[in-house]
Design goal:
Layout: H1 5-15, E1 21-25, H2 29-38, H3 45-56, E2 65-70, H4 72-75, H5 85-91, E3 95-99, E4 104-106, E5 114-116, H6 122-132, E6 136-143, H7 152-172, E7 175-182, H8 190-210, E8 219-220, H9 237-251, E9 258-261, H10 268-282, E10 290-294, H11 296-306, H12 313-330, H13 338-344
Parallel strand pairs: 1-2, 1-10, 2-3, 3-6, 6-7, 7-8, 8-9, 9-10
Antiparallel strand pairs: 4-5
Helix pairs in contact: 6-7, 7-8, 8-9, 9-10, 10-11, 10-12, 11-12
């Protein structure tokens, strides 16, 4: 255990505290600009800052959100009045986090497969972010399902990088969010997604163990087990809930502080419905809380409404808060799609 052991354990438990989850606003500048472009929002640093301020200053956000994952640009920014974003988060009683990976790059010798990079100088970066107020971090690995993919080499390379990142985080005082994402892209079936997710999680936890990562001081951010978006036979919500929990129970040690799902391209409503069903049917069988660490599934309705217009900030914040509340209820097994239908009524 590192010298930060007790602090890390307390932070990890606070990140997955009952009835709340995490909000990811850690899109790279390039990704954020692409989303702006789709809505004809000028892709400027000021617009990115204003959008993140809209999110962070949403009244009562801390009622449903435990922590926020930031990007390097965002953790250094301030409100228009000059208050650092990190201070805004702390003042609201939430925890600041930081994305540490530098993106998925082509894996040599394995066409179409990716390995996530960013280990170079990571110890120094962790020390800087800790000094700036971050108390947890995120690293995302991406695995694509294809005819012969993902290869063992791809799974192992990403699992090893995740484990080295997690060990460095715990050494430097940050709780690592370990995010191995089996992508929803493709024609694969639910069963095929289960096989790949099962193999991936097994490899990840073997590597975490080998690198001496303390499971009590980390949070897992996995994909749900879903049929691919182009699959002709889409999964029922019951099948998603049952298969996902089965995969987790088989592979995730009970000592892990919590499981905070990624939304992975699901619609906002499906991401809430699947999480709620898992908690409703299987929550009492799981040794860890099942909650959310969503980005688009919470942000998108707010971004669609805001579109860079300062006059729309208040309504956009209400839409953001609505999605945060829906997912808070889902983490308790109490979400219903009627909540969205009622909000959408004129």
């Amino acid at each position: 255990m590192t010298s930060y052991g007790q602090e890390l354990r307390s932070t990890a438990l606070a990140m997955v505290a009952r009835g709340k989850g995490l909000l990811a606003i850690d899109e790279s500048n390039g990704t954020c600009n692409k989303r702006f472009k789709k809505l004809d929002i000028p892709a400027t640093e000021e617009n990115r800052r204003a959008y993140r301020e809209l999110i962070l200053t949403t009244p009562h956000l801390a009622d449903y959100i435990n922590g926020l994952i930031l990007y390097d640009e965002t953790i250094r920014q301030m409100t228009k009045e000059g208050t650092p974003f990190v201070q805004i988060i702390k003042n609201a009683g939430m925890i600041p986090g930081i994305k540490l990976d530098t993106g998925a790059k082509d894996l040599a010798g394995h066409q179409g497969e990716k390995v996530t990079e960013g280990l170079d100088l990571l110890r120094d970066r962790i020390a800087e972010y800790y000094e700036m107020g971050a108390r947890f971090a995120k690293w995302r690995a991406v695995l694509t399902i294809g005819d012969k993919a993902p290869s063992d080499a791809c799974i192992e390379a990403n699992a090893h990088a995740l484990a080295r990142y997690a060990a460095l985080c715990q050494e430097g005082g940050l709780v690592p969010i370990v995010e191995p994402e089996v992508l929803i892209d493709g024609e694969h079936t639910l069963e095929r997604c289960y096989q790949v997710t099962d193999k991936t999680l097994h490899s990840v936890f073997c590597q975490l163990y080998s690198q001496g990562v303390e499971f009590e001081q980390m949070v897992l951010k996995p994909n749900m087990v879903l049929a691919g978006q182009e699959c002709s036979q889409q999964s029922t919500p019951d099948a998603v809930a049952e298969t996902t929990v089965k995969c987790l129970l088989k592979n995730v040690p009970a000592a892990v502080s919590g499981v905070a799902f990624l939304s992975g391209g699901q619609s906002s409503e499906k991401a809430s419905a699947h999480l709620s069903l898992m908690n409703e049917r299987f929550g009492d069988q799981c040794p860890w809380p099942l909650t959310f660490s969503y980005g688009r599934a919470i942000q998108q309705p707010a971004l669609d409404h805001w579109r860079g217009d300062s006059h729309q900030v208040s309504e956009a914040q209400q839409r953001l808060l609505h999605r945060a509340k829906c997912n808070s209820l889902a983490s308790l097994g109490k979400y219903s799609s009627t909540m969205d239908r009622e909000r959408d009524r004129p």
